[in-house]
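Hi V.,

Quick status before I head out on leave. The structure for the redesign project is tokenized and pasted below; the design run finished overnight.
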């Protein structure tokens, strides 16, 4: 039986204490009826004997303690799910935001969900093509993986996110593919950018969009990624679709956690964030994966901005521990006009080896990836030496490596946000660049692959001897 209480004891920020309650459960949904008849929703955060601490999604401003009442609804926050969600836009609490008709839900699902049991997981090993060379070739995304993007303030992560949402696809399968996009605490301008891009390119037709804006209550940010993941799990595990979840910006989510923690007067951890930040993030990230015997999958690309470009900040640091790698955006490449400015050397995809090779991409994938990494690192080092010692101090081979690094950035990395390269085009471009180097320097590629794929032209050894 639903009970109604008029025993509101205290209001602090987004939190409210309700006294003399009974039978209340953790994460139970509540409704607050204000003195003017307005209804606001909230959720139980903590229970101590006959007292309940609740968070109000729409904020606590204007609540009269004596004349307002609280109803405990007996169930957690839920999302009504249906295949009709595809192509629609919702707010951070799952309410229709695009002006269209309400969704007729096939079922209602608890947004808190559960992380996947490790014994039920199937190993991620199928290639997802994003159309971006520096990801597909060098930091491959695999179906069921969680691969975050580490950005910085002012870097073009929104352009990269929309490009991935627009271009991503699973190759050699007729299974349906969908994108679930969650904007968490983003500005109105960013939201308009994403929606305009989705509509103009047609990406909206295969997308489910949740938008939580910066001027929405911070408390709503806690629910937004869970709403997105619940929709993704429904489409993946019940409808057999391959779902890519893009969440931006996870830094805003963590800031909301810190705000609530401070309001609850909890003892802060590193840099004021709650001590349970790692555990809380894991309840989101670990909802990605594949299940044995189930056709669908959930792949995650969470995007976060590193405060002061600091990789040791708690948010990127803990995210790196939980996820399977990271894509790092470089401010230096951005200043040089490289689009997208992905810094491939510190970036990493821990599952790339399982999603590449013959039958998945091409048999020369792994060898060319290793050779490009090595050559680019040597080229960067040669360019740094030239700055210190002068170009005349470089050997002939070092000069070739320096030119290679320059071409690599300008031709391979700098593809723009509208170019969609297939993995074959990316691999062929990699071979064109490697043809610059003397054959004796291609030590990471077998003779058979060199014979099959290396472009035939002027021998790079002749260039060295000039």
């Amino acid at each position: 039986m639903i009970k109604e209480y008029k025993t509101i004891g205290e209001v602090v920020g987004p939190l409210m204490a309700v006294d003399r309650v009974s039978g209340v459960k953790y994460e139970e949904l509540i409704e607050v009826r204000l003195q003017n008849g307005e209804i606001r929703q909230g959720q139980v955060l903590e229970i101590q004997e006959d007292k309940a601490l609740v968070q109000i999604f729409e904020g606590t401003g204007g609540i009269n303690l004596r004349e307002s009442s609280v109803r405990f609804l007996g169930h957690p926050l839920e999302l009504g799910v249906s295949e009709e969600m595809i192509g629609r836009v919702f707010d951070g609490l799952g309410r229709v935001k695009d002006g269209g008709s309400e969704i007729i839900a096939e079922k209602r699902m608890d947004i808190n969900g559960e992380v996947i049991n490790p014994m039920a997981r199937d190993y991620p090993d199928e290639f997802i093509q994003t159309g971006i060379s520096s990801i597909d070739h060098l930091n491959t995304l695999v179906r069921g993986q969680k691969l975050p993007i580490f950005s910085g303030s002012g870097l073009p992560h929104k352009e990269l996110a929309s490009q991935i949402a627009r271009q991503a696809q699973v190759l050699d399968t007729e299974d349906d593919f969908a994108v679930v996009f969650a904007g968490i605490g983003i500005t109105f301008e960013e939201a308009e950018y994403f929606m305009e891009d989705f509509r103009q390119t047609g990406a909206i037709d295969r997308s489910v969009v949740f938008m939580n804006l910066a001027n929405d209550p911070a408390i709503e940010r806690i629910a937004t990624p869970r709403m997105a993941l619940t929709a993704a799990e429904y489409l993946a595990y019940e409808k057999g679709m391959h779902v890519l979840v893009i969440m931006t910006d996870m830094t805003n989510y963590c800031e909301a956690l810190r705000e609530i923690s401070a309001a609850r007067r909890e003892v802060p951890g590193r840099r004021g964030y709650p001590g349970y930040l790692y555990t809380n993030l894991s309840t989101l990230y670990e909802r990605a994966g594949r299940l044995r015997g189930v056709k669908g999958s959930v792949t995650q690309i969470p995007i976060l901005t590193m405060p002061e470009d600091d990789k040791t900040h708690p948010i990127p640091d803990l995210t790196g521990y939980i996820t399977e790698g990271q894509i790092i955006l470089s401010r230096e490449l951005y200043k040089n006009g490289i689009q997208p400015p992905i810094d491939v050397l510190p970036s990493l995809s821990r599952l790339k080896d399982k999603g590449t090779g013959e039958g998945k991409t091409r048999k020369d994938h792994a060898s060319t990836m290793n050779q490009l990494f090595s050559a680019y690192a040597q080229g960067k080092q040669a360019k740094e030496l030239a700055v210190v010692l002068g170009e005349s101090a470089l050997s002939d081979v070092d000069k070739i490596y320096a030119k290679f690094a320059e071409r690599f950035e300008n031709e391979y990395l700098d593809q723009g946000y509208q170019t969609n390269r297939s993995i074959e085009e990316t691999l062929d471009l990699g071979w064109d660049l490697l043809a610059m180097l003397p054959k004796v320097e291609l030590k990471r590629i077998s003779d058979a692959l060199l014979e099959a794929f290396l472009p035939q032209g002027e021998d790079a050894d002749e260039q060295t001897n000039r």
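Above is the designed sequence. The chain has a mean pLDDT of 91.

G. will cover questions while I'm gone.

Best,
W.
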